Amino acid sequence: MTEGSGEHVSREIAERAKRARADSQSRHDRVIGISEAVVLSAVALIAAWSGYSAAKWSTESELKLSGASTTHTKASRAFDRALTLQVGDATTFNAWFGAVTSRNPEAAAVAKKRFRPEYRAAFDAWLATKPFTNPDAPAGPQAMPQYKPTDQAEAVRLDATADSLFAEGEHAAEHSDNYVRTTVILGSVLFLVGISAHFPIRGARIGLLVVSVALLVFAIVLILSLPTPP
Fold it and tell me: How far apart (Å, rounded) are the C-alpha atoms in residues 191 and 36?
């Protein structure tokens, strides 16, 4: 073998080694590129779901809070009606009591006829306690358990319903905020994967990809811990 042929063989071996290294680097780059594409696809789908869930829970919160406000208004109206009836009952009772104490049976009879049926039941029960001779008798018909002003129970029920709706609205708002927070994390993943392609150093791309995958897994865990949208 001549000296020239030996040099030729050496150059051939070096070129083959160089091509092998280039092929290996190209394969590594392709693997990294495919991994980045997979992460981007997953992030796009999960971010879309997270954004949709945040919007749905936000709408649910608005509906619940609006319902709570409307129900509180209805409760206030029912309470006002009940209070008006209580004032009317007290007025007619005072008229009857004044007629009785002034020994005017005609006026007492007229006042008694003006009692509402619901109030009349409590009034009769109060008279049965002999209030004019019994020092332990209740102060008046409104102090009797039979006295149940119309709309008072409805006001209490509506208030309880409104409080429940308000609590549900607050929980829905918290769920919406949590989904928004998850969407922000996914946005960070998109940013990291997006800038990794601009780094010529393979180690930097791999590092950014690892961080991106970790954030993606964290976001998935958060989403799985949250309730599904209504």
Answer: 12
CB 141 within 8 A of CB 93: yes
Question: 211 vs 32, 51, 126, 174, 203, CA distance in Å?
Answer: 14, 22, 78, 27, 12
Spatial distance between the Cα atoms of 6 and 1, rounded to a whole number of angstroms: 7
Count CB neighbours of 93 within 10 A: 21
8 A C-beta contact, residue 39 and residue 210: no
Question: pLDDT, tens digit, for every residue of 49-98?
Answer: 999 999 999 999 999 999 999 999 999 999 999 899 899 999 999 999 99
Name the residue with tokens 């309730």.
227
Do 120 and 144 meet the contact criterion of CB atoms below 8 Å apart? no
Residues with Cβ within 8 Å of residue 125, at least 6 apart in sequence: 141, 144, 146
Q: What is the pTM assigned to this prediction?
A: 0.70
Distances 189 to 76, 117, 134, 204, 206 between C-alpha atoms, Å:
50, 71, 82, 15, 14
